[in-house]
Design goal:
The complex is a heterodimer of chains A (701) and B (85).
Chain A: E1 10-16, H1 22-30, E2 34-36, E3 47-52, E4 58-63, H2 75-84, E5 95-101, H3 105-116, E6 122-127, H4 129-134, E7 137-139, H5 141-148, E8 152-154, H6 163-172, H7 187-202, H8 207-219, H9 233-248, H10 253-272, E9 273-275, H11 286-290, H12 295-313, H13 316-336, H14 341-358, H15 361-377, H16 379-393, H17 401-406, H18 411-417, H19 424-433, H20 442-453, E10 458-459, E11 463-464, H21 465-490, E12 501-503, H22 512-546, H23 555-561, H24 563-575, H25 582-590, H26 597-609, H27 620-626, H28 639-651, H29 656-665, H30 670-696
Parallel strand pairs in A: 1-4, 1-5, 5-6, 6-8
Antiparallel strand pairs in A: 2-3, 3-4, 7-9, 10-11
Helix pairs in contact in A: 3-10, 5-10, 7-8, 7-9, 12-15, 13-14, 14-22, 14-26, 15-22, 18-29, 19-21, 20-27, 20-28, 21-28, 22-26, 24-25, 25-26, 28-30, 29-30
Chain B: E1 8-10, E2 19-25, H1 33-38, E3 46-52, E4 59-63, E5 66-70, H2 72-75, E6 78-82
Antiparallel strand pairs in B: 1-6, 2-3, 2-6, 3-4, 4-5
The chains are: A alpha/beta (701), B mainly beta (85).
């Protein structure tokens, strides 16, 4: 799994509230030695890294999703509970690292109290202590250790303060707190709870798990819900009687457990905190502007505009550099290798194919960087807050905002980010429409076709047409997503109203390290795809487009008679109504599994068609512009064809990795198959309509 | 144990800047009561309405030392006794 030679003997799981600084601390502790599995079949379950101790041993550190409580509401929170209650068979933690935000001790201690109930060895890392100090909040660390019965280490991840102590403590803590459970229930409830714990233990449940489950069962509103399938009829009958009894005695069963914990927390907090007279809870003056009715929206639109502007303008400089680099490489290989099949394979198959994709790394870098910064400063929560009403109107959710925005980079992290959405239906609709957001893999296709076929004229004298077309494609994706979501919600996914509960964390300076690790990870995953999948497809395609070899044929005839050419001709009747010919058909077939392959396919197809393979300098764009249909003599690509092709790519699924992730996240083939179906129908219909409309308006097909 | 004439208002009826003491948490349509309590929105806590989102929903409140956003439909089931201005 991890590349080091020694196998870590221990597993440590990091838990904490969202925004508690858990991930920053995790990154500081593990550095770049972490692994995010992110591929078909092995989608992210968790992020894990290696923590090395001074004595040379090491442990696996798992970064669990942030949660407020061990009574899970979202899929994200279910993961945490399954691991802490040892319900999942893999990665049973030996030690829990509980991350607690010192500036919000009260709410953070609620989760701590639930974790302590699990009787596992626990170390508490107290983050944001520098902020707490600044706010005039004094904390008695020794007192807190005494109250909790576990080590408490104050840390400041940015300066490294307390990290050494934390690592030593993680190394040396092997036993759970020796204190008995510290919070207590009112008498009658306590009695019923103990009785239920005994019954559960009689059914082979461990004491800590029984303790937790008994609370959940007693607090449950009724027993009709699906959450009870884990328990025997005996247990459920007993619980029903308990409910009747406690309800008769006038207990509010839900409230009583929460209040009992908070009673303990309030006592602990008043014992260990000293608020100086200057203590002030920050009001968040920034939000007077950033979440303002008018200025907040203006700022929001400006941020979105800046985000896309930077991706489409600043990124072009390094992109050109990379492109030139690959051209240079191709020329070098051409001079070193003797003419023949091998050179053809390397230059026209491998290099051309991979270059077409690697060029887009700068854009992915910039886009992930912007998204990561917005997330880590705390602005994304405000965006979700401001957009909830609009998204709710079309059947989505404020929390759909981050997944949908991430999908502009790539639908895979976007779909995985939906795990924070509590309502299963809100989540499903978000997953279903996420691939319609213009992901970065569409960019290579858009960029190539726009540069080739959209004249750089000004619309109404001031708007550059290529930019307008590009923007329209993104708007098309968003509008389609909203419309589809609304239709789904009105038809087969209408149900119970969902809720929106979201913490608005204080604005914070993002940790450079965390941001960089995240962004580099995203770029690396993209490159890995280019190096494996796309390289493979490029080589296979080169083969299919070069064989069977014909004697004395022109390159164009050769292509037409090749395997790829024949396949393109087979589907031509199907795509003719959209204005596409068999050469585009080759592109469509090859990009069924991954859309950006279209560009490398076109690269391979047209490089092979070159009369003289040494001419080198003619770009793919120019090849496309000059290509003609050999029977009619008309250009293969016109402005209308290019637009239709881009509309098709904007709406079609064409991504194997997304299908795999959706299958995983929805536990089955039903929804991914449905998604492929509706997206294909949508893409075909809209493209057909655009083509007909274009012809009607007098454009050349 | 009837307190002196207090008229309870729902949190959704407060105006930005107004605050109150939570007196009752009614069950919400969206089954959110338990989670809200776990996040510190408890009977006896002070809660302040900070602002309303640009399109009129959701609300931003301060409770338990942090800021939280919830929809009006959920805020309706949080009953408070308003603090004097």
């Amino acid at each position: 799994m991890l590349s080091d030679l020694t196998t870590p003997s221990r597993t440590i799981a990091a838990v904490g509230n969202p925004n508690s600084g858990k991930t920053t601390l995790f990154n500081t502790l593990t550095g770049m030695r972490q692994k995010i599995a992110n591929y078909p079949g092995v989608t992210v379950e968790r992020i894990e890294g290696r923590l090395s101790f001074p004595d040379g041993t090491s442990a696996v550190l798992i970064d669990l999703p942030g949660t407020y409580s061990l009574n899970p509401r979202s899929p994200d929170e279910h993961i945490v509970v399954d691991i802490l209650l040892k319900r999942s068979t893999d990665s049973i933690p030996d030690l829990i690292l509980c991350v607690v935000d010192a500036t919000n001790l009260t709410r953070n201690l609620y989760l701590v109290s639930q974790v302590l109930d699990q009787r596992l060895p626990v170390v508490v890392a107290l983050t944001m202590v520098d902020l707490a100090r600044k706010q005039g909040l004094g904390l008695d660390i020794a007192g807190l250790e005494e109250e909790l019965g576990v080590p408490v280490i104050p840390v400041v991840a940015s300066t490294g303060e307390g990290l050494e102590e934390l690592v030593v403590s993680l190394r040396n803590t092997h036993t759970p707190s020796q204190k008995s459970r510290t919070w207590s229930l009112p008498k009658p409830i306590h009695h019923e709870h103990e009785e239920l714990v005994d019954i559960l233990r009689g059914e082979n449940m461990s004491e800590p798990a029984a303790f937790h489950e008994a609370i959940g069962l007693l607090a449950a509103e009724d027993m009709g819900n699906g959450a009870t399938h884990r328990f025997s009829k005996n247990v459920l009958d007993h619980v029903r009687k308990d409910h009747e009894k406690l309800d008769f005695l006038g207990f509010d069963r839900q409230t009583v457990f929460v209040e009992a914990r908070y009673a303990w927390i309030t006592r602990v907090c008043s014992n260990v905190t000293k608020k100086s007279t200057s203590f002030q809870n920050p009001i968040g003056t920034l939000d007077r502007f950033l979440a303002h009715k008018v200025w907040g929206l203006v700022f929001f639109l400006a941020i979105m505009a800046l985000l896309f502007y930077s991706v489409f303008t600043w990124a072009t400089i390094p992109m050109d550099l990379i492109g030139n680099g690959f051209d240079w490489l191709g020329v070098q290989v051409t001079t070193f290798l003797p003419e023949g099949e091998l050179r053809d394979l390397v230059v026209n198959g491998a290099i051309a194919g991979v270059a077409a994709v690697v060029t887009f790394v700068p854009q992915i870098f910039l886009l992930s960087l912007c998204l990561c910064l917005l997330e880590d400063t705390g602005y994304m929560a405000r965006a979700a807050f401001m957009m909830d009403k609009l998204l709710h109107g079309v059947g989505l959710h404020g929390k759909s905002f981050v997944p949908l925005l991430s999908s502009f980079a790539c639908a895979i992290p976007g779909i995985m980010a939906t795990r924070t959405i509590e309502s299963p239906r809100d989540r499903l609709v978000t997953i279903l429409v996420a691939p319609l957001m213009g992901c970065s893999a569409r960019l290579p296709v858009y960029t190539l076709l726009i540069a080739g076929f959209i004249p750089a004229t000004l619309l109404w004298g001031f708007l550059p047409l290529p930019a307008v077309v590009l923007l329209s494609l993104y708007v098309l994706g968003v509008v389609a997503a909203m419309a589809v979501a609304a239709v789904f919600r009105k038809t087969f996914l209408s149900d119970i109203p969902s809720s929106f509960v979201l913490e608005l964390p204080p604005y914070r300076m993002p940790s450079l390290r965390t941001v960089l690790i995240n962004v580099l990870e995203r770029c690396w995953l993209f490159l890995k795809r280019a190096g494996t999948f796309i390289l493979g497809v490029s080589i296979i395609l080169w083969f299919l487009a070069s064989y069977p070899k014909l004697e004395h044929a022109t390159p164009a005839e050769q292509l037409k008679q090749s395997f790829a050419g024949r396949a393109g001709q087979v589907i031509e009747p199907l795509i003719r109504p959209l204005g596409f010919d068999w050469k585009i058909g080759i592109g469509l077939i090859s990009s069924i599994l991954q859309r950006e392959v279209f560009v490398s396919t076109m690269g391979t197809v047209y490089n092979l068609q070159k009369e003289d393979s040494n001419e080198g300098s003619v770009s793919l764009r120019e090849h496309l512009q000059h290509d003609r249909n050999e029977s009619t003599g008309k250009p293969t690509f016109t402005m209308l064809t290019a637009i239709c092709l881009m509309v098709y790519y904007a709406l079609a699924m064409q991504c194997l990795s997304t299908v795999a992730v959706v299958r995983r996240e929805t536990n089955g083939w039903k929804w991914p198959l449905f998604q492929i179906g509706y997206m294909t129908v949508l893409a075909y219909t809209v493209t057909f309509a655009v083509y007909r409309f274009g012809l009607f308006m007098g454009l050349d097909g | 144990m009837q307190p002196k004439e207090v008229t309870l208002a729902s949190l959704s009826n407060l105006r930005p800047g107004e605050s109150g003491l939570i007196r009752e948490m009614r069950p919400t349509k969206t089954n959110l009561r338990h989670r809200l309590m776990e996040m510190g929105v408890l009977t006896g806590s002070r809660i302040e309405l900070i602002r309303v989102a640009p399109f009129g929903d959701p609300l931003e409140v301060r409770v338990c030392g942090y800021r939280l956003s919830l929809r009006k439909v959920e805020a309706e089931s949080v009953l408070v006794s308003k603090d004097p201005p």
